[in-house]
Amino acid sequence: MTTKPSIIPADAALPSLANVKADETMLSHFIDWLGKLAVNLVVAALILAVTFWAAGWAARFMRRTLTRVHRNNPDPTLESFAASLARYAIVAVGLVAVLQQLGVQATSIIAVLGAASLAIGLALQGALSNVAAGVMILLFRPYKVGDFIETATRQGTVKSLDLLFTEIATPDNVKVMIPNSKVFGDVILNYSTHRNRRVDVLFKVPLKTDLVAVLKRLRERAENDARIRQDPAPMIEVTDLSEAYAQAAIRVWTAAADFAPVKTDLMLSAHLLSEDSARTDLPPPRPSKATDPSPAMPGEGEHHNLLALIKPRRPRKAAATAKPTGVEKK
Q1: What integer pLDDT is reported at residue 83 of this predicted model?
Q2: With 107 labelled, which of 4, 132, 155, 217 sits at a CA distance of 20 to 30 A?
Q3: Could you tell me the pTM of the whole model?
Q4: Exposed e or buried b for every residue in 102-140, given b needs 16+ CB within 10 A?
Q5: Which residues contact 66 (CB under 8 A, 6 or more apart)?
Q6: Separation of alpha carbons 166 and 159, rounded Å
């Protein structure tokens, strides 16, 4: 009787049962680890997405809340800063939750941060100084959103105040981000704080031109310009005298919104009158841009700060004394 040929050679060594079981165990552990890792990654991604959504919602909630609280006197500066603070705080908490989901324990994070606090402080000293400067700007309020300011490098209108940066728009509409530490650590010129500003125009009058007539015509123009305050009255003076010309100056007070137009008109009038004091073709004054053209003392302005946001309530008006009721006589 013939036997069938075997596929497996007679001298081949078969794997032992223990090795097969060990390989199957390692493969099952690896598959379980991959499954747990995939689940953790999905949950971490969901936590991260919820964190960014919650950060945006918290920022909007802070803006709406502060808008309702300061309904009569809105403060965009405080709204922008508080919204930024809420956004960054929630993002920080969310990142810690993501690290915990990926297997990094909170105690380990605290230990690492504690051990590396000096290095982190040195590396982030610029960012921390910007945060501290932002808090100081919010407290003392040298400027607010909407003010036209000038720093050591730029000038423009303040658009927002963040934890790290102040955003301004230059007169030619260029967005500029300035670190808060640079703004607060240098000279700040705020052109929007006071309602009134003084316009100083220096001009030269040749000696061949009647200086007295030029100064008289300029005074009449200043007195007839509705944009120029008459209290204090316009002041005209001669500041220098040489062999070729006389230098004079006119100083008037006007609303902050009318500063540039008034200065331009006075410079043009002084130039035209310096050539001929009798000319009558001077351009008429332009209309005022000030929203409140009422007179005010020079340098008048409100100083806003965080400590002055809570204003005392106005006392209620005393109730009118009720008239004694009497019996009508028939």
Answers
A1: 83
A2: 132
A3: 0.57
A4: eeeeeeeeeeeeeeeeeeeeeeeeeeebbbebbbebbee
A5: 75, 78, 79, 82
A6: 8
